User: Fold these one by one.
Assistant:
Number 1:
Amino acid sequence: MASTQGIYSSSSNVKTRRSLLDAKLSRREPSFVPVSPACRPVCPAKSVARDTPPGLSPISNSPHSMATTPEKDPISLWNRYVDWLYQHKDLGLYLDVSRIGFPDGFFEKMDSKMQRALAAMQELEMGAIANPDEGRMVGHYWLRNPSLAPNSSLRLQIEKTLDSVCEFANKIISAEIKPPSSPHGRFTQILSIGIGGSALGPQFVAEALAPDNPPLKVRFIDNTDPAGIDHQIAQLGPELASTLVIVISKSGGTPETRNGLLEVQKAFRDAGLEFSKQGVAITQENSLLDNTARIERWLARFPMFDWVGGRTSVMSAVGLLPAALQGIDIREMLVGASLMDEANRKIVVKNNPAALLALCWYWATDGVGSKDMVVLPYKDSLLLFSRYLQQLVMESLGKELDLDGNRGTRSALYSNDRESITVTVQEVNPRSVGALIALYERAVGLYAYLVNINAYHQPGVEAGKKAAGEILALQKRVLAILNEARCVAAESVLRPPRYCFFDNIEQKIAFDADFQQPFSGSDDCLLQQRFFFAPLLLYLSPPSSLSLLSIVASLLSVSFITMTSPTPLRYVLMLMNGDVSLDAFIVSVLLLNAESCTHPSFSYRPYAFPLPSQSSLL
Ligand SMILES: O=P(O)(O)OC[C@H]1O[C@H](O)[C@H](O)[C@@H](O)[C@@H]1O
């Protein structure tokens, strides 16, 4: 038996307990998933869901109660459990919503809204343009039942891709396709490079379902942190020669993924290996990645369809290929998801687990996302389900991620008036994992309809990627200036100079004062060209903005900044590199007349550092 629990906590309440709970949490790491729809206040002035319809009594005995106090009497609670328990016998899946405090009549009150949501879902499944921003259909449900695809060409695409995934995986596992220079004579490792929707699904499936000794072991590069990438490559060591590198990117142009690819390709070159003989791309046709893979003649390419969103792509080649290579029965996963989809089409809410979940979310969060959802997997192998759900819910329902903590048994939670939902599967196997994924995908879709938002478009994602392009260009210009200074300095002294001054840096790089640094902290997007010269003190003059400073910080991979006080309008910002000790400051940046230090990218703390004059340093 394996359970996962969704618990609802009001943000402020949970926040105060965060540090305590953070310390206690270990393997059963919860994820906090806001279910707030975008563009709505998090704290509602007035509850939408809790308006008890005329003639209905809230659960609490007190007529003045908000009906938020869950049922406490054990017999009533038992009756509630018996009344509401949803069971899917073929899937061995149980959904218990009895500890959500909705009153009698709530489901009836919501029925017309839910019926509209179900009808919209039906249209979506029939091929409606559910993502109007991009003029796209939304078809992840067809992936597990191609006969539902709105036309035969889409159906064939799905079936052909599934067949080719299975065929390729079999050939790799049986060593019919092998790496050119591996002493093992076959592929033994997978290195998957991708981020967000192109990483979390495959990671979850691997953690949940991979056998102890899979035919190929999988590793992931899912961030642009150079240390993390180096670590993965170092761990592979000589096995790089028998590693299948799968690069996953729907758009084919995500900078983080590209950085990972460039670093891995460099490792292949350094080891005298030919990357193209071991590289596989999963991406949309004609994307940058697709074209690169085609021109460089990589080992294989698999399509990602424009009608599948990244966060719901785990049943496409994105999730299926890595899973099949680990010996996971992907057809069973698809069967599980398809059976769950069938259940989720039922119009009687009590018989429809996704509708039940969506309505409970609606109730628990007042229909305006007034609480955060905490997901606690009670089974280690489902640990990553919470991370997977974070992205699914966060990107679909569009609120920033909030981290908080609550832990305890269900009854402890309940006695503290925490509402919760428990999903239980009899066994964690491909079928039940497929079903879990399908359950939440649909619940998110239905909930989005209930709160009147579109779960399928992604405003901000493309804008974010564009902004990333701008910052990369700016970083290059800053880097050129820093490197120029390094060359000049290197001519005059044998060891790296301790202090450096940069005049007119903003003019030199044509820095736009309004530029908003879209990333925080130490994103390092220029792995290939890292600035390796590290002066002790770096002066920027004239006054530079904190956005510019943050770019310098990212180039130097610094992890935090401190600020001197109390000199008004005069700041020394200490940038400290994570891998040096406190007394070995890598660089500090002197900003004169800097703007107010309230930039959200950094945390500041007073640091008693004497502000030296330039002459005393030289
Ligand atoms: O698959 P890609 O196009 O490389 O995108 C990977 C990921 O990029 C960002 O993180 C987006 O927020 C995600 O929605 C997306 O899944």
Number 2:
Amino acid sequence: MFLFPVCSPFLTSPSCLSVFPPPEMKGKNPWNTPTTIIITVIGIIAIVALVTVAVLQNRHLPQKYKYGIVLDAGSSHTSVYIYKLCQIYTVGISSYASAPWKAGESLRACMQDVEQQVPKKRHRQTPLYLGATAGMRLLKYNSSMSDGVLQAVEEALQKFPFSYQGARILSGQEEGAFGWVTVNYLDDRLSQVCGLETTGALDLGGASTQISFVSDKYNGSESPSNSVNFRLYGNDYNLYTHSFLCYGKDQALLMTQSVPEMLNDPCFNPGYTAIKNYSKIYDSPCLSGWKPQKIPTHFTHNGTGNFQQCQRIVKSIFNFTHCKYSQCSFNGIFQPSLQGQFGAFSAYYFVMSFLNLTDTTMPLEAVKAKLAHYCSTPWNQIKQQHPEVNEKYLAGYCFSGTYILTLLMEGYNFTSEEYSNIKFIKKIKDSDAGWTLGYMLNLTNMIPAEAPDSPLLPYSGYVSLVTIMAILLFILFILCLCPLWTRCSKQPEIV
Ligand SMILES: O=c1[nH]cnc2c1ncn2[C@@H]1O[C@H](COP(=O)(O)OP(=O)(O)O)[C@@H](O)[C@H]1O
Ligand SMILES: [Ca+2]
């Protein structure tokens, strides 16, 4: 705080008089006496200092360029996010249950790449997390091998020069809630004034699928396990979220293939044929108890490419009958009425963008007609049209597209009108939509519970205020010197 000599043309306090030059200076030009010059210089320095401090105080500190690394260990892949994706192999760490050390090994190449991408001087301050999702939830459900896999992953990650924060299996609720945080954080729907409607999050993985949204009609009392409360930037959010384990698209496919007569498959293109191992189907925890007594080890999987028949088979893995709540989505799970816009990401996007069906303003009947045409296209023609696409994905697009429409329309009860409220998204403002960013923001407390102190004035307001103050102060100084000076130069009359 800068103290100014308190003197003013309106103040004739003795203190002011005594400050100024003594009588012997009478009649001389008051402006070039050393005292006046010193006072003026001090005043100007004070004003300049004030302006400098004010500008520095309000200068936006350059955002410290921070890194954070989160590994998304999904059921089918592990991705490394340092604000951009470094895809590792298309095999989830849960696939290494029988050889856990391979899980750690599978991360090495990409983590070495990450080590190059994060500036060396920031390695120690860069937090490193690994979050595992449904693939590991299923492994944990099925066996104790998940601990061995996490341990091997932990040993591998601790060898890197980052600030290792741990590897853990996320709950389905966390995966759904953090996906919602990411979508709304990137879409700037959290730090605004309260009342801005948030966007729902739809995440489709290989082993699970999540739905999360805020519903004005849902206060969490009905089915509390589906309720997550957030306080972000001073706003309270009561989020509805549910994660359907086994309803990721890969596990859903296995469940449709368990249907006994499933040798000729309408969800695969005509002419598609492959020899498959039944154990791959019945080893999944999602099908435990479904294994028929007598089955051959292998079966021939033939495609017949019929969308309507495929829809019927896909619907058979959903239970729409029992619901003990006021309303349900499927399998007896409570779901409040849908509300607002939704961002659908991960496999929702991979599938619908391949099928050119990301335009949700397209009438639903037209979407179904396009998908039916794709499903009925002969497999050889599909392979010729898409030589660059991994056949593992290419063979599954008819099923996956049909599964997505069934999940959204019959599962979550989107009406044909509400379908246009869904946006199939991969990125928002150059960041991938997914749970990882929300997870890291939460763990690094980068989203404050309370609103940051909103500046009374915008930055420019501060500068102009300070400048005006400085000019006024300077004028004040000049005015102060003159009348006092005049008055001071006269001998005080002794009465
Ligand atoms: O390019 C692609 N085309 C089609 N599907 C893809 C592509 N890339 C990834 N996927 C699928 O997206 C899903 C990603 O699932 P993820 O590995 O996140 O599992 P999780 O979230 O269930 O743990 C998997 O079904 C995977 O096959
Ligand atoms: Ca996932």
Number 3:
Amino acid sequence: MTTPLAQARGLTKRFGALTAVDELDLDVGPGEVLGFLGPNGAGKTTTVRLLLGLARPTSGAATVLGCDAWSQAPLAHQDVGFLPAEFALHPRLTGWANLEHLRRLRATAAEAHRARARELAERLDADLNRPLRTLSSGNRRKIGIIAALAHSPRLAVLDEPISGLDPLVQKEFHAIVDELRSSGAGVLLSSHTLPEVERIADRVAIMRAGRLVACERTDVLLGKAVHRFDVTFADDAEAVSFLRRCPSLTAVSRVEHDGAVVRFAVEGAVTDVVTTLGAHRVLTLRTPETELEDVFLRYYGPATEVAR
Ligand SMILES: Nc1ncnc2c1ncn2[C@@H]1O[C@H](COP(=O)(O)OP(=O)(O)OP(=O)(O)O)[C@@H](O)[C@H]1O
């Protein structure tokens, strides 16, 4: 069995009466991208802070690269890359000056670090020569990604890395994450939304109210999700004809009908629905992206609330 790069066992953090992270067990393996999802306040950032030794667990423990995350944090950090949700670099310094400062802290070899930073800056179309405060928030985020990855870490912990990045840059970022995985690095990628991680994560861990409520392979999770359909038929009669066949499609629910437009949800496999639609005159078909809430609905029912 491969040794995890990051591991949490019974990891718990309480703030007074509030349990922000509750008995969490989690692993990130080498060559694995783990999507870390949950709604606001679920406990993602607290977990990340515990893994990075920025907060002390109330009970349980986290291990990062074989080191205790709290008591041996400086040792573990040599080989960990971290992109915080809130920006932590110096706003008056240029990207290069910030990178140089971080490199010295880690005592990474200058040449390799600069070459990797240059390569990442080119690929992400980032400007390392301007003071960070003069950059747009998306462009600052790029510098944060470079700062997290320039020392070629074995483990990258990235809190909402692509929020604010344009689609082309997101695509390049995905390619960079793919390469990290191929090189044997581990990546923990936290996000609010499933679409942000579904393209790149091997597994997805979902937190809610401090607890881990699911940890599955991404394809398995998506296979269980609710998929939404928004269909415009050639005319009202065609829509009605489709609706008559709907009751025989067991996975179809939440049907809404407005003239030639029919909206509905499908739980799990969409094969039957797509075959049935193929027998009707369809003008347009939209499938809005699967939201995290849709996964929860399928998994835990609409009233899922995990008690603290
Ligand atoms: N230092 C703190 N003191 C008191 N409560 C805290 C502290 N840090 C976090 N919390 C609480 O712990 C819970 C989990 O917060 P956390 O920031 O980990 O959630 P999150 O999943 O990262 O949310 P978001 O997606 O909004 O960033 C929240 O209820 C939050 O208010």
